[in-house]
Specification:
40% helix, 16% strand, Rossmann fold, alpha/beta, seven-stranded mixed beta sheet, 253 residues
Length: 253
C-alpha cells in the first residue's frame, strides 16, 4: 500500500534538472518582459515534443527540452543506446520548459486563450487542481480555455465490454490483458518505475471535472464534441476523437 500511494521513487532530481530550472527561469523572465505589450497571450500547456501550436507559448516540463538544446549529446546518447530512436527524433523546437503544476509566470488576468490536451491525467489529482486554479488566475475575464482529457467513462465501458467478452468465451479465463491495460490507463504511474509524467496518475469523467471547475470558480462550462466549440481556433487542434472528453470554459463571470 505504501508503494501504491507514494511518489518517492519519482522524486530524485539529477543535476541537469536544476540546470534546466535555472536556465529556463532566466528565459521565462525574458519571455514575460517581451509579452508586456503583446496583443494576445495564448498558452499550450503540456504540449509534448510534437504538439507545438503556432502563435502559442508552448509549455512542457520534460527534461528532454534541455536535452534538445544539445543535439550532439543527444545523438551520442542514442549511439550509446541510452535513448530510443523515437526520442532522438522528437522535435522540441519552440517548447519552453515550465512546470505547470507550480505557479505559472504570468500576471493575473493576462492570458487570452489556454489549450490543454491530455496533460492533467499525467499529474496527481492535487497538482491537477492547482493547475486549474492557475488557469483561473491567469485567464482574462473574457478569455477561453479548451480542456481535453481521456474520458474515464469511455475507458470503463471498454473495460467492462472486453471483460464480458473474455468471460463469455471461457468459463475460467486466464487472460489478464484487459485488466492490466485498464489499470495502467487509470493510474499506471503508481504501478511502474517509468519517469514521472510518462504514465497516468489520475482520470476524470465529466461530472468530476465539472465539479472541480465549479469549485474553483468557473461558471461557463460546456461539453463539446471533437473539433467543435465556440472557439474554432482551439477546437481544430483536437487530435483524439474516440476516447477524449472535450470541455470549453469561457470567461470567469
Amino acid at each position: 500500500m505504501t508503494r501504491l500511494l507514494s511518489f518517492s521513487h519519482m522524486s530524485r532530481k539529477p543535476f541537469f534538472h536544476w540546470v534546466l530550472v535555472f536556465t529556463s527561469g532566466l528565459e521565462n523572465r525574458k519571455l514575460i518582459y517581451n509579452l508586456m505589450n503583446a496583443p494576445k497571450i495564448k498558452l499550450n500547456i503540456g504540449c509534448g515534443p510534437n504538439g507545438q501550436l503556432e502563435g502559442f507559448i508552448n509549455i512542457d516540463n520534460s527534461k528532454a527540452v534541455l536535452l534538445a538544446r544539445f543535439p550532439k549529446i543527444k545523438k551520442l546518447l542514442f549511439k550509446l543506446g541510452l535513448i530510443s530512436k523515437e526520442k532522438l527524433e522528437h522535435d522540441w523546437t519552440g517548447v519552453r520548459w515550465m512546470d505547470a503544476s507550480r505557479r505559472l509566470p504570468f500576471a493575473s488576468e493576462s492570458v487570452d486563450k489556454i489549450y490543454c490536451s491530455h496533460f492533467l491525467e499525467h499529474i496527481p489529482s492535487d497538482n491537477g487542481k492547482y493547475v486549474l486554479k492557475e488557469f483561473y488566475r491567469v485567464l482574462k475575464k473574457d478569455g477561453i480555455i479548451r480542456l481535453v482529457v481521456p474520458d474515464l467513462l469511455w475507458h470503463a465501458e471498454e473495460y467492462v465490454r472486453d471483460t464480458m467478452r473474455i468471460q463469455k468465451d471461457s468459463m475460467l479465463p486466464d487472460d489478464r490483458t484487459v485488466h492490466d491495460k485498464f489499470l495502467d490507463t487509470i493510474y499506471g504511474a503508481y504501478l511502474s518505475n517509468k519517469r514521472y509524467g510518462a504514465s497516468h496518475c489520475y482520470m476524470y469523467d465529466l461530472s468530476t471535472l465539472v465539479s472541480i471547475l465549479k469549485k474553483i470558480g468557473f461558471k461557463k462550462i460546456r461539453k463539446c464534441h471533437y473539433q467543435e466549440g465556440e472557439d474554432e481556433e482551439l477546437s481544430r487542434y483536437d487530435t483524439r476523437s474516440e476516447d477524449s472528453l472535450h470541455i470549453e470554459i469561457t470567461g470567469k463571470e
